[in-house]
Design a protein that fits this description.
With about 150 residues, this protein is α+β, with helices and mostly antiparallel strands. The chain has one domain. Helix content is about 50%, strand content about 15%. It has helices spanning about 1-20, 45-55, 55-75, 85-100, 120-135; strands spanning about 25, 105-110, 110-120, 140-145. Strands 1-2-3-4 form a four-stranded mixed beta sheet, with helices on one face. A hairpin with a 2-residue loop joins strand 2 (about 105-110) and strand 3 (about 110-120). Helix 3 packs antiparallel against helix 4 (about 85-100) and helix 4 (about 85-100) packs across helix 5 (about 120-135).
Length: about 150
């Protein structure tokens, strides 16, 4: 029975990692890559993204998802090396739940997370690194995001 449980959990984690192999974004308007210098988003797209992200149901869902992933990680080995796709997805969810009006992309490799895109305030920019480091398996965070007001 234990082997079956471990097999099922491993299958779910493998499926999750494969599903998250693309660049993770906090919103549809976030840049496609952490390499390009981001442009300030348009005001209407920021408002639409903010409305979706600030929805209390969505925030509870994201936080529950993060908690479930951490519990699965503890069952399967705790602080051992995490899959890049899992880290990327968890950091993206954490940022989306806590910085709802941001437009960020997240990439992860060997515990190093790169976050790029735009936020509206300097305070939000300062929150990116501490929030990302709350996720187990994140060793270092490179913040390439900028503060930019939405375009009219």
């Amino acid at each position: 029975m234990k082997k079956l449980t471990i097999f099922l959990l491993s299958s779910v984690l493998l499926f999750g990692a494969a599903a998250c192999s693309d660049n993770a974004k906090t919103s549809a308007d976030a840049p496609d890559s952490t390499q390009a210098t981001p442009e300030a988003p348009k005001a209407e797209s920021v408002q639409k993204t903010k409305q979706d992200a600030t929805d209390e149901t969505r925030r509870r869902q994201l936080n529950a998802d993060i908690k479930a992933r951490e519990e699965r990680n503890n069952i399967t080995g705790g602080d051992t090396k995490r899959a890049d796709g899992d880290l990327k997805s968890e950091v993206r969810s954490k940022l989306e739940a806590n910085l709802p009006d941001s437009q960020l992309t997240v990439e992860a490799e060997d515990g190093v997370v790169v976050v790029a895109g735009t936020v509206l305030k300097q305070e939000q920019l300062a929150k990116i690194e501490p929030l990302a480091k709350e996720i187990k398996g994140v060793k270092n965070v490179n913040v390439k995001a900028t503060v930019a007001a939405p375009k009219p």
